[in-house]
Amino acid sequence: MKWKHFIDSNKGVTFVAVLLMMAIFNQWENPTAWVYLALHGSYGWMWVIKSRVFPDKTWERPVSLPAGLGIWAGLMLYWIAPLIITSQNVRLPAFALGLLIALYILGVFLHYTADMQKYTALKLQPGKLITEGLWSLCRNPNYLGEFMIYLSFALLSAHWLPLVVLALYMLIIWFPNMYQKDRSLARYPDFTAYKQRTKLFIPGVF
User: Fold this and answer.
1) For the chain, domain boundaries
2) Are 113 and 89 in contact (CB under 8 A)?
3) pTM of this structure
4) What is the mean pLDDT of residues 118-138?
5) What angle do CA 103, 107, 112 make, to 5 degrees?
């Protein structure tokens, strides 16, 4: 089996998991729960579609069953936010829901557009460093988009714990992957100039 089989299955069933939480805690009249279901559920489905249409070769590698189940369990930590929302009847004001929906939409745009640009560029011009489009803004626009997505999920819970989970993922997985990618891209002659004019993660900041 491959990494993507475990990741895709987890993200694909997130809609069902959140819906089940809503049923267990009788949250059918909670607008925040419905917004969360729509956002995280649609994100999971879009991920599965992306995995089929323009897959990331990182997740195409084979993986052992224990390691695959480990990543599946790890991804379940993202379900803490909807559990808090449904079990504690969290209800955000309308303006907060609107702002977080906007944050999610912007994140989806950056994440999936950057991944599509990368997939297309590597297919049409293999061996060439990608420095144009969204990749001219920073060296990891896809991670920036994913951060916005998961930040919107965490903030919907109005609780600190999902923010801790997101921070741990960033420190343990995301940033090491970004720095590893920088080391790998250093083989390109024009990478030094590209690195000097861009930031790692947040345009103009870091």
Assistant:
1) 3-197
2) no
3) 0.96
4) 95
5) 155
